[in-house]
């Protein structure tokens, strides 16, 4: 078997192979637009082929930016299109491709890679750990009343600021792109959506050109600062693809608009962070049914010192991390020193505070999973009683991470 990089000439073979791995067929397209794979970067993809030239596996990557705690924006490889034909599974093809890909990412100078896991049991062995989480909220229309407490000292007739405008998806592509970009730069765990994605309509709504209604919120000066993309089906269920807002006022205004929609039986918010305030804003706290509470973005550190010094930190302190990376056959110990929001990470021979797998380091990296939880779960070993609490304080993020982007 050979694993080789692809070129533009391999596009159809690459897509046909990954589709077959998932039991699907390539969508027909006359101009290469409006399909999930339209934004593939063929110079970043790999194809596994047999000795007689038959393609049996694929692995790809996108060039993204990831927002870290401290509103630091860094490059990250978005691993995608990973699959092996059913006829060639459990023969080492996947492991060979993942090892080849990680080596290639390091050679490119990248220190972080991320992915969305089709199955939760696959990617931990390759060094990835779940780092952000998401859930679905379903609110029956007859229980959708909001009961927002007034701020202390506010007047009953205080005027609402801003406005909501209803547009069609085809009318507001530039607005969506601009608002999302402002949002993702301030949201830890968020990925960029390159202009190429919007231009080609790659991915899922609202990036794709699928018909959608879009509620755009504008602030008091008329500047767009939020949007919600949604559709309404025959059962009168209003399904919200995503709500993007640059502040809480815009988020609340959009929620009020969606929950107040006439001729609707229920409103489904497909993709909200576990810490979303909507349930607390409802008059009936139990009205919002939580479902599909699951992982979303998985993170893999390719260069531990570079990754740890790239993010922002809110607490000073020192921590010795003993990091095992069995997939790449590496084991290193680092002294992490944080002062005034910046970190230094260097090799050390000091006794460790924590021993952990690189996948667990990926899980705690964005602040969405506490080290103490993984200590309790038996993933991380704490070498003294204060180690877990110290790690919790250091890795804590002021804003919980969340990722909306599908890739």
Automatic annotation (TrEMBL):
Acyltransferase in keyword set: yes
Pfam families xref list: Acetyltransf_17 (PF17668), Acetyltransf_9 (PF13527), SCP2_2 (PF13530)
Active site: 123 (proton donor), 407 (proton acceptor)
Sites where the protein binds acetyl-CoA: 82-84, 90-95, 118-119
InterPro entries: Acetyltransf_17, Acetyltransferase_Eis, Acyl_CoA_acyltransferase, Eis_dom, GNAT_dom, NAcTrfase_Eis, SCP2_sterol-bd_dom_sf
UniProt keywords, alphabetically: Acyltransferase, Transferase
N-acetyltransferase domain boundaries: 1-153
Official protein name in the record: GNAT family N-acetyltransferase
Naturally occurring in which organism (per UniProt): Streptacidiphilus cavernicola
């Amino acid at each position: 078997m050979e694993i080789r990089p692809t070129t533009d000439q391999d596009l159809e073979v690459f897509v046909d192979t990954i589709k077959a791995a998932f039991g699907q067929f390539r969508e027909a397209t006359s101009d290469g637009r409006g399909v999930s794979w339209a934004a593939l970067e063929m110079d970043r993809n790999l194809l596994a082929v047999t000795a007689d030239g038959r393609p049996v596996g694929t692995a790809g990557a996108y060039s993204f930016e990831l927002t870290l705690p401290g509103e630091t924006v860094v490059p990250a490889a978005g691993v995608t299109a990973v699959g092996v034909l059913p006829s060639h599974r459990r023969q080492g093809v996947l492991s060979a491709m993942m090892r080849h890909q990680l080596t290639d990412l390091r050679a490119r100078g990248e220190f972080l890679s991320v992915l969305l896991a089709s199955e939760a049991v696959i990617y931990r062995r390759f060094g990835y750990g779940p780092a952000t989480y998401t859930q679905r909220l379903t609110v029956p229309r007859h229980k959708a009343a909001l009961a927002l407490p007034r701020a202390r000292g506010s007047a009953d007739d205080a005027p609402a600021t801003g406005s909501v405008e209803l547009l069609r998806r085809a009318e507001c592509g530039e607005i969506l792109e601009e608002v999302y970009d402002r949002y993702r730069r301030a949201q830890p765990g968020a990925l960029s959506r390159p202009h190429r994605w919007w231009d080609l309509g790659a991915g899922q709504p609202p990036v794709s050109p699928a018909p959608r209604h879009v509620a755009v919120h504008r602030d008091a000066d008329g500047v767009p600062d939020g949007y919600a993309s949604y559709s309404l089906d025959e059962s009168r269920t209003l399904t919200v693809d995503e709500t993007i807002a640059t502040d809480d006022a815009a988020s609340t205004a959009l929620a009020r608009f969606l929950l107040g929609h006439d001729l609707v039986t229920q409103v489904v918010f497909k993709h909200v962070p576990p810490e979303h305030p909507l349930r607390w804003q409802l008059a009936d706290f139990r009205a919002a049914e939580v479902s599909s509470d699951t992982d979303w973005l998985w993170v893999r550190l390719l260069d531990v010192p570079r990754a740890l010094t790239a993010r922002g930190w809110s607490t000073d302190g020192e921590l010795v991390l003993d990091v095992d990376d069995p997939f790449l056959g590496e084991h290193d110990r680092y002294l992490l020193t944080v002062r005034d929001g910046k970190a230094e990470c260097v090799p050390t021979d000091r006794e460790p505070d924590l021993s952990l797998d690189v996948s667990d380091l990926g899980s705690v990296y964005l602040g969405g999973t506490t080290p103490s939880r993984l200590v309790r779960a038996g993933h991380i070993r704490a070498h003294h009683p204060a180690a877990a609490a110290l790690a919790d304080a250091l890795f804590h993020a002021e804003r919980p991470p969340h990722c909306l982007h599908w890739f």
